[in-house]
Each structure stands twice: as C-alpha cells, then as structure tokens.
Write a structure and sequence with these properties.
3-stranded antiparallel sheet, 6 helices, alpha+beta, 5-stranded mixed sheet, globular
Length: 193
Amino acid sequence: MTKHKKKLILNKITTIISSYAHYFNEENFIKLVKELKIKNDLVDRKSLFHLTASGAIVNSASRFGQIVFIRHPLIGKMLFPGGHFELSDVYPHQTVIREVKEEIGIKNLSLHPWHKKNNFIPIDIDVHPIPENPSKNEPPHQHIDLRYIFLTNEELLSLRSDNINFCQWQNLDLLKEVYSQTLYERIRDVIYK
C-alpha cells in the first residue's frame, strides 16, 4: 500500500468523523481529527489508535426491534459485531459487513438508508480503551469505533470465530444498559421512523 493511498484513506476517515461531529454537535471529535491527521496510522496495530467499525444489526423480518449482540472474550462485554478497519474495506461500514460474515455468518446485510442520506456518517462514534493483548503482541490502545445501523432478514446466527464467545438476538432496550441512552434513542428514532 502506497503512502499516498494511506493518506487518501485517512483523509476520507477524518472527513467522516468531522461530518459526524458537526451533524451531532459533538465538537470534541474535531480535536481528535486534528490529532489523527498529524500522527496516526489507523490500521497499524502498534499505534495508539485503532479504527474499528461495528454495527447495530436490526432484524427487518420477524424479529423487528431486535439487534445482534456478541460477547468479546478479551474485553468480556456485550458489543455490536464488528472489527478492525482494513485498507481493503475502503469505507468503515464495509468493515462491519466483512466481519459479520466472518464471525457470525450473516451474509445479507444492507446499510440503513439513514447513512446513505447523511453522507455515510456513523450513528455514533465511541473512543474506548483496550487492554494489552499479548497473544497478538498489541500494547494497550484506544479504539475509535464508528457505529452503523444495518438491516437483515436473516435470523440464524452461528459463531465462526474465536474472537467472540456469544452471539444472540436481543431486544433494542438492552442498548440503554450496554451502551447509552443517547445511542438507544438515535437507533430507535432511525429504525422506527
């Protein structure tokens, strides 16, 4: 991968984060964008920041109002499925599509139209600490997690990865407990609109 291509992708990512910050009036992310433009390679597993993307996968058929949660063994928490951004993903929401197919077997995913109407900004961005992972030779670092909403009509989930130890459809209300009231309200308002 050329240095030029990495710079183009970093510019695309920082534009998405800036657009998100302006849309949701979360100006604290503008400072993060400036810092990322100066010194970070978001796909280098040795850097302080790793770009990740995750998805609130909403069942658009019989389980409407339910979303998929996984449990990550290293962190020990319930999360949306997702993973590390790779340069081949081009856009962060493509990370979620790739990871969901690999980890829980859902193949039929579509990005919620809300994202398309809003220049592919995420519904949420969270920066959170990740502990050291000696098995992957990764020091403690921060994940910048871009969160998207996806629709699927598939119901069957199957664990296909050692990176997770649980996956299940859960009621949307669990978002308030696992993440935040704000994220719950954003997703609820988008899917029930």
